[in-house]
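2 proteins. here.
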Amino acid sequence: MSTAEAVLETAPERSRTGFDFLSSERQQKFDLLLHLLANLPRPLLVSGPEGIGKSTFLRLLQQATQDGWRICRLQGGEDLSFEGVQRQLAECLGLANAGELDRALAQREAGGELVILAIDDGGDLLPGVLDAVCRLAVHHPALRVVVTLRPDDLHVKTVTDAWAIEEGQVIELPPLDLPRTRDYVLALGARAGQGTVDEALVREIYHRSHGIPARIREQTQAHIGKPPLRWHQALAKPVYIALALLIAVAAALTYWQQRSGGAKTQADASAAVAVEPVAKPPPVAAEPQLVAGATEPQVSELAPQPPAPPPSPEEAVTEPVAESPALDAAPAAEPVAETAAAEAQPLTPAEILVSLGVHTSDWLLQQPGQYFTLQIAAFDKLEELAGFVREHSALQPLAYYRKQRRGRAWYPLLYGVFPTLEAARQAQTKLPPGLRKPWLRRLRSVQKEIRALQSP
C-alpha cells in the first residue's frame, strides 16, 4: 500500500473540508485531548496559528463516540456573552431555558456522564467571558471546557482572563514537518487523480506553508488541474529554439555595433592625424636646425642674436610637463582594477538582507515587549529568506532573527511593530493576498526566543 493510500485510509471523508489529515504526532495530541477530558477537570486550551487544525480537532471531537459524553460546540465571537453561552448550552442539552442548567448538570454528574463545551475561536470572546465559563465548570464537575486559541489570543487572555489561562491546560498543535507535508501533498494529489508529485514542488509547498495544513491544502490545490509538474520538459524544445534565436540576434547586433563603432573610430583617428601637424607649433621643428647649424661657420652670424637661446629651455621644460600626466596615469589603473574586483564579490545572505533594509534581533530587542508583530514567514535557510524579501520588498519594516527548531537553525520573518492588537489586525488585512494569515505575536515572546539562544 502506498503512503498516499495509507493516509487516505486513516483519514475518512469529512462533510466540511473533504479531507482531514492527522499525522502520528497530531493523532497523539488528539488522544491526549480525549484523555484529559476524561480525567482532568480543568479547562483545555488548544493553541496554534491560523490553519493549524484547531477547528478540525473540535469536529473530530464531535464525531468521537465516547459513552456518556454529550458534546456541545459553540462558535466564539464578540457577540457571544456569558448569558449567550448558557442559553446555547441549555439548547444543546434539550432544556427549556438556561435556568435548568444547574439541575441538568447535577444529574449528569450523578450518572457519571460528561458535558463537553467546545468553543471555537475563543480568542474572539469579549474580555471576562472565558473566565466566567471556566468558573462555571468549576462549580459543575460534569462540565468540561475546551477552547481553541491562536497564540496571540493566548497572550491577550493572560491579561483579560488571567484566571482561566492560569488554571487551563494548554495543548499546542505543532506544524507538519517535511516528511508529513510530503505525505499530505501525496494524499491530496491522489484524491485529485494526480499520481506523482515533484519533490521540488513538495519542498516549495513546505517552505511557503511553514507546515500549516490549511496552507498546504491551498498550495496543493492551486497546482491540481494545471499542466504536469514537469511541464518544462514538453516546452524545452521551443524554449531552447527561442533562446537560440535571441542569442543570434544579440550577437548580430553586437557585431554590427562594433563594426560601425570601429569605422567611426578609424575616421576620427585619421582626422586627428591630419590636423595634428597643422596645430603643432613651429619652434619644435626649428630647434634641431639651430642645433645642427651651430657646428657650421655660420655660428658667428647667429651669436649676436640674444633671443635665440631662451626658447630652448622653455621648450625643454614644456616637453616633460606634457609627458608627466601620461606617466602618472599608468599606476592609477591598479586601484580601479582592485575596486572592480571588490565589487564583483557576491554578498552574503545576511548582507543582502541588510541592504534590503531588514532589521535584526538587536532591533527587535529594543522594541517594547507589550507591542505586537506579524510573523509572515519562516525559513531554515537565509538564502530563501533573502529571496522571499526581494519578492516582497514593499513591506516595511521587516525584521528577522535566528532560533533553534528541532536542533536546526530557523529564521522567522516579522512584519511591523504595532502598539495595540487592533492596529496589528488592521495591518493584517492590508497584507498581500498570500500573506493574510500571519501569526500575530507579542514581541515579548519573540524577545524571549532571542534571549534563549543568546544565553550560554
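next one coming up
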Amino acid sequence: MSSSDPFSQDPSNSCSCAASSMLPEERRRSGRTRMALLACQSRLAFLEAMVADMESQNGQLRSENQRLILVLRHLVPWARIEAPTTEQREDASALRLEANESSGAE
C-alpha cells in the first residue's frame, strides 16, 4: 500500500482520515443522522420502560382480580363467579366503546 492511501494511515494523527475528508454537507447530514438516531434510541428506551411498567401493572391487576374472585366466591358461594374469558372481555370493550360513542354524539 502506498503512503498516500488515506486508509493505510493512522487516523489518530492523520489529516486525511475519513471524517476530515468529508464534505461540509456530508458532515451536517451525518450529524443530523446521528442526532436522529440518538432521539430514536431515547424514545425506544422510554417506550420500553413504559411497556415494562404496563406489564407490571397488568400483573398486579390480574393478581388483585384473582384475589377479589376468591373473596366473592367465599362470600357468595352459590354465585357462579369466574374470571372473564377473552371473548367476554372483547364484548365488554365493544359495549363500552358503543356507549362512549353514543354519549359523545348527544
